[in-house]
Design brief:
Number of strands: 7
Helix content: 40-55%
Structural class: mainly alpha
Radius of gyration: 18 Å
Oligomer: single chain
CATH topology: Aminoglycoside 3'-phosphotransferase, Chain: A, domain 2
Shape: globular
Strand content: 5-15%
CATH class: Alpha Beta
CATH superfamily: Aminoglycoside phosphotransferase (APH), C-terminal lobe
Number of helices: 7
Amino acid sequence: MYIEEYGTLKFTLFSFIQGETLDKIDQGVLREIAWYLGKFHRYSEERVRNYNRKSRIDLDFYMSEIEKSKIDFNEKEKIFSIYEELKNIDFNTLPKGIIHADIFPDNVIVKDGHINGIIDFNESYYGPYVYDLAIVINFWIKIKEYSFQKEYDLIRDFLNNYSRHRKIKKEEIKLLNLACRKMALTFIALRLYKEKIEKAYEKALDIEEKSYLSLIKLID
């Protein structure tokens, strides 16, 4: 009821969010994002039965376009091999609702050390909740290359705090590791598509940070 349209774009006006983009990940912030995601997903689970909107973040689309382009790139064999393993796993049998689908740290605003807002729902759609969980695990925790024990403790703490608001089902836990690999591969493919096909990074100032190669470790 709060969504307006401008041409083909949809938007919502809201109060100004004070704060800065999140640039430091710690246990406190992980607990807060778990709390917010849990509440968001539970709200969706209780009140939204469908949300007819597609996201541009689509692994099958990117892999199809990359394959058709016949381009060569580093780790090509590994990327396509893992895609073959994952493409027939049906995550849509898991609990679904509205998900953010792009819940990276740079889409979170913090003020005085606490989360003050979550932005950029441009890719949100009706999908498996486990995808949002996988994105946080990949790009807030695993990407930091902590020791095995610290990584394990942070992931467990994140999931436990999320579960205080929306209980994670056994079938979600069972497929969580594969969901993490799929989300990692999805953003690798997205960056590959932009870098090699759209050539969107040719004018970028920080090409290395945006390169798909920095994410390869997430699928090893």
